[in-house]
Write a structure and sequence with these properties.
By secondary structure, this protein is of the alpha+beta class. The protein has helices spanning 13-24, 45-58, 95-106, 142-160, 174-185, 188-200, 231-244, 248-264, 306-322, 328-333, 408-427, 441-449; strands spanning 7-9, 32-40, 64-69, 72-77, 86-89, 118-124, 129-136, 222-228, 268-276, 291-299, 344-350, 368-372, 383-389, 395-402. The strands form 4 sheets. Strands 5-6-7-2-12 form a 5-stranded mixed beta sheet, with helices on one face. Residues 11-448 form the Condensation domain.
């Protein structure tokens, strides 16, 4: 390997799993994490390019390329960021057309070997612009996205004022890789492996009925249904959590598991929950994939109440988070039958105190900015639910789904049924899950007209 190839670094287990997925479907955009900010007036291009270089220089994953040496994947770190920025003048398209263009940017596959994990595209209208960052999941997670935007806005402000960017620290993902390798080489590995083997013994993944047969080869194509939870529902979730002495997320997970039980007829099943593995001050500022999928296993009997389902979800989450350091790919690989442990996932993304993505007063200096919500991570699982907790405690929910398997109408109906069960659970947590109505008013009227109950 020549010096021009870059400095070679090892991958984490999670990155290796992402690389394997990429090798299976290099033309897929399923692992593209897409975020966008609308700014008025449009950004200064020279300053923006310099700010991109500064961010890449601080976070080495953003100036890395990925390849293999022999049979092992590695990342090659370039000495300096490129600041590559594609500028597209799109005329006076309306907001809906602009969102369509943003999604098209996100659907272009990333070339990890030649271009690296980051693509930056500026879509310029006459009086404003949308800056779109597309980053492969091999190099980012939800918190990393916020760190990148924060650093980009900070660098832009300094450079626009004529200063030089001088980061106090240059956090490295290598710190996490070293910690993970030490854990896997030590006694903690056996302890965690035993726990997850027990949790997953004889487990079956929650498996929804599909609109089409499962294909032999997945295309990893997906789409999303995104909605705000009604304010009253979000308020009821918080109140119910307080009454049951659990977190609001436990309520959301417990009711979601109840939905899966009702839809699948499965009395016992597993789902996945991506959780942070950022532990300690040294990893607080690191950009990279610092999440791991933990397995949640639930059980329902005819008399299970919402309260007991929610309490059980709280225990599942607590146990999973405490043992999240053990990579999910190793848990899955240990299964003798190789059947997937997870086909459905649910996760919560909360706003951090220094998140500037959606803050019109603390974003890019000299510009009015607002975040444009762009669903991503679509198609990796049959169904992946992401709940965004917004600054005002509102809850924005995305149902991302595999379009090889599910139609949008099916997912819309699942969303409606989830809302119906949330309402039932919050109205009476002691109610039995099996007895709760799942159809909304309009759907119930339609069923009655058809002579169904």
């Amino acid at each position: 390997m020549s010096a021009g190839d870059g400095d070679a670094r090892e991958l984490s287990v999670g990155q290796a799993a992402q690389w394997a997925l990429y090798r299976l479907a290099p033309e897929s955009s399923t692992s593209n994490v897409v975020t966008a900010v609308l700014a008025e007036p449009a950004f200064d291009l020279d300053v923006l390019r310099a700010a991109l270089v500064a961010v890449q220089d601080r976070h080495d994953l953003l100036r890395s390329r990925f390849t293999e040496t022999g049979v092992e994947p590695v990342r090659l770190v370039d000495k300096a960021g490129s600041g590559a920025l594609e500028v597209r003048d799109v005329g006076d398209v309306d907001d809906e057309a602009l969102r369509t263009l943003i999604r098209a940017v996100g659907e272009q596959p990333l070339r990890l070997g030649s271009d690296g994990p980051l693509r930056a595209v500026l879509l310029r209208r006459r009086t404003d612009c949308a800056l779109v960052l597309v980053i492969h999941h091999i190099a980012t997670d939800g918190l990393s996205q916020r760190l990148i935007w924060r650093d980009l806005s900070d660098a832009y402000q300094v450079l626009r004022g004529g200063g030089a960017v001088d980061w106090p620290t240059r956090p490295s993902y290598d710190e996490f890789v070293a910690r993970e390798q030490a854990m896997l080489a030590g006694p903690r590995r056996a302890e965690l492996a035993e726990h997850w083997a027990g949790t997953c013994a004889g487990a079956t993944a929650a498996t929804l009925s599909t609109d089409r047969p499962r294909p032999a080869l997945r295309s990893y194509r997906g789409a999303a249904v995104a909605r705000m939870l009604p304010d009253e529902v979000a308020r009821q979730v918080r109140a119910t959590a307080a009454d049951l002495a659990v977190t609001p997320f436990s309520v959301l997970v417990g009711v979601f598991e109840a939905l899966l039980h009702r839809c699948t007829g499965q009395g016992e099943f597993t789902i996945g929950c991506p959780v942070s593995v950022r532990r300690g001050r040294a990893l607080r500022e690191v950009v990279g994939i610092l999440v791991n999928l933990v397995v949640l296993r639930s059980s329902f009997v005819p008399g299970t109440t919402f309260a007991s389902a929610i309490a059980d979800a709280g225990r599942q989450l607590s146990d999973g988070v405490a043992r999240a350091a053990y990579p999910f790919s190793l848990v899955q690989a240990a299964r003798r039958d190789r059947d997937p442990l997870v086909r459905v996932t649910i996760t919560l993304l909360t706003r951090q105190h220094d998140d500037t993505m959606s803050d019109t007063s603390n974003g890019f200096v000299g510009h009015r900015t607002r975040q444009l919500m762009v669903p991503y991570d679509e198609g990796q699982f049959d169904l992946a639910v992401t709940i965004h907790q917004l600054p005002d405690l509102a809850l924005r929910t995305e149902f991302n789904y595999d379009t090889d398997l599910l139609d949008r109408a099916t997912v819309e109906r699942l969303f409606d049924q989830y809302l119906a069960l949330l309402g039932a659970a919050c109205a009476d947590p002691a109610a039995i899950v099996a007895d709760a109505p799942m159809a909304g008013d309009s759907e119930q009227r339609m069923l009655l007209e058809l002579g169904m109950s």
